[in-house]
Amino acid sequence: LGELELIEYIRSLASRERPTWLEVGIGDDAAVIRLPGGDRVVVTTDMLIEGTHFERGTAPEAVGYKAVARALSDLAAMASSPLCTVAAVSFGASHSPDWARRLSKALLESAEKLGAPLVGGDTSSGTAVLSLTLTALGLPGPKGVVRRAGARPGDAVCVTGRLGGSLMGRHLTFKPRTQEALELAGRFDVHAMIDISDGLSTDALHIAQESGVGLTLRAEAIPISEDACVMAGRRGPEDSPIRHALNDGEDYELLFCLSQADAVAAAQSGLAGAPVSIIGIVTAEKQSFILCPDGSREPLRGGGWEHLKR
Amino acid sequence: LGELELIEYIRSLASRERPTWLEVGIGDDAAVIRLPGGDRVVVTTDMLIEGTHFERGTAPEAVGYKAVARALSDLAAMASSPLCTVAAVSFGASHSPDWARRLSKALLESAEKLGAPLVGGDTSSGTAVLSLTLTALGLPGPKGVVRRAGARPGDAVCVTGRLGGSLMGRHLTFKPRTQEALELAGRFDVHAMIDISDGLSTDALHIAQESGVGLTLRAEAIPISEDACVMAGRRGPEDSPIRHALNDGEDYELLFCLSQADAVAAAQSGLAGAPVSIIGIVTAEKQSFILCPDGSREPLRGGGWEHLKR
User: Does B119 touch chain A (CB under 8 A)?
Assistant: First the structure.
């Protein structure tokens, strides 16, 4: 059962009546809850499974860091700042008490370092492999959250950083784009945003679908990481770096839509030291495309994690 | 690695400096966060593993219900009302898409029925058995939360419902004592509270430890469920119902301490229709005891889940 299918199913069941305190619900990177006194809290939950999200043998320090960083990346995608985290861990049968202690320490230290102290947890046993769920609470920025819905025809499509080849190691060490997202939302009117976890192609389609628009990306404008080039080089001539940049996923970069003028300003200044690239345009036509260097255009298909692995 | 050991370890690492917005942290049933505008949110996370928390072959409807009910029981233990939930699920390799859909539906419907609508989630694959983490957010009652710490010498020790033999089926069908906890905290000055998940003996020691006191329980006063009698009967003469009531766990009843006068009033009226029993007294002496019917007293030892299974 694919994630998208399940989320769609949950959404169809849940959409009947949304409580008034639920400002953003299922279908975005995080939910936004309005509390009785007027405070808003953003909540996201994220699961890491040994063998799926990290290789067996990965150091517990890297596993703990990734768990926290992934959840905070979801908060960043909503232009929200981290507040705190809770963790639920089922240690795999093969992990020693020392490994478990190192993972616990890594969770605590990573959470504190990334600005979302661990305030609670649950531990269990019974799984053959490590299963780790990180739930993060955050606070919306002063102008509120940014959602996947909201991209407008004529908007520029932008991305931070460089994409592809994350499995070379970056998927364990990336820094969530929290500061970048807060600066972005503070300086500009951002219409839609997502973090790239499933892959640029798939996540671009998420924005398109939620916003009821199309996205046309220019292949030549997509910033490709060195890792993507290395991976493509290893796999021979039928592979290419752009395929990795489009489909690998786990980049945890920000993909966002805003006016052309704002996009130019963001690309010129960068965000909190991170480069920003303008990679496409939003169209009223709901079909999404990729413009190839030879001038042809092809339908943009979700080639990210959802497509490849399920 | 036992849960207690890990929590103690995390606590030792985390206790160095607690953020000012963290009113209650690791070591209670849930954390309490103060938001910038003054709202408070209570958060708890709880993991369910197939084979550990429910038998393989359990209906997905029962699994989904239990996951939500367990998390809300933690909120009830803090005298907090449920607000919403998020779920992270890794479906076991053997579960069909239909089973997964039924579980998703059960999570949604149970959460709604118990007053904590599901507002987000994450799904994954890669575990051989089902791994399900439910995180619940709640709101403190008007007088604030009740913690494990706070029991005072001279207090009465009380419990709702009847204990033991939960594995006969009640562990899948119990109703979290939300209404009971809210009525209790509304009518009385409750000094300390916990929900009985690990077993009466172990959870009584949790209150004793956190409060820096001792608890002396009267064996004859402990309300024993019919299920405990049935289970003891099956196991022959060396077993007894009181052992099940003390040690089985998964009762999800409320164990709480308050003045003798308040305890008598609560026992006379019951709480939201649930019976209340006065089962012991809080002592300044930090050792905890069980008073046997023959007048002897024995040290109270944690015979609950932590002791038996690890």
Answer: yes
| CB atoms A86 and B44 under 8 Å | yes
pLDDT for A306 beyond 50? no
Count each helix (H run) and each strand (E run) in chain B, helices first. 10, 13
What are the pLDDT digits (tens) for A266-305? Answer: 999 999 999 999 999 999 999 999 999 899 999 999 885 4
pTM, 2 dp: 0.92
Residue A76 backbone phi and psi in degrees, to 5 = -60, -40
CB pairs under 8 A between A and B: 230
Q: Considering only CA atoms, which of A189, A255, A188, A191 is closest in space to residue A217?
A: A255
Q: B89 vs A47: CB contact, 8 Å cut-off? A: yes
Helices (H), chain B: 3-14, 60-77, 97-113, 170-173, 178-187, 200-211, 226-235, 241-247, 260-269, 305-309
* Partner residue facing B121 (CB), from A10, A38, A91: A10
Structure tokens given for B264: 């008598």
Q: Test B119 with A22 for CB contact under 8 angstroms.
A: yes
- Nearest CA of chain B to the CA of A28: how many Å? 8
Give the C-alpha separation, A158 to A173, whole Å.
Answer: 23
Contacts of B159 (CB under 8 A, 6+ apart): B196, B200, B222, B223, B253, B254, B255, B256, B276, B277, B279
Rounded average pLDDT over B261-275: 98
b/e sequence A45-79, b meaning 16+ C-beta within 10 Å: bbbbbbebbbeeeeebbbbbbbbbbbbbbbbbbbb
Pairing between strand B118-124 and B80-90?
A: parallel
C-beta of residue A291 within 8 angstroms of C-beta of residue A218: yes
pLDDT > 70 in chain A, percent: 93
Q: Helices B260-269 and B178-187: crossing angle, nearest 10°?
A: 130
Give residue-wise pLDDT tens across range B65-118: 999 999 999 999 999 999 999 999 998 888 888 898 899 999 999 999 999 999
ipTM value for the complex: 0.90
CA–CA distance, B299 with B227 (Å, rounded to integer): 26
Burial A98-127 (b: 16+ CB within 10 A, else e): ebbbbbbbbbbbbbbebbbbbbbbbbbbbb
| Entry field: residues in chain B | 310
CA distance B275 to A166: 58
List C-alpha distances in Å: A215 to A154, A164, A204.
10, 19, 7
Residue with tokens 């940014």: A146
For residues A265 and B76, what is the distance between their CA atoms, to the nearest angstrom?
51
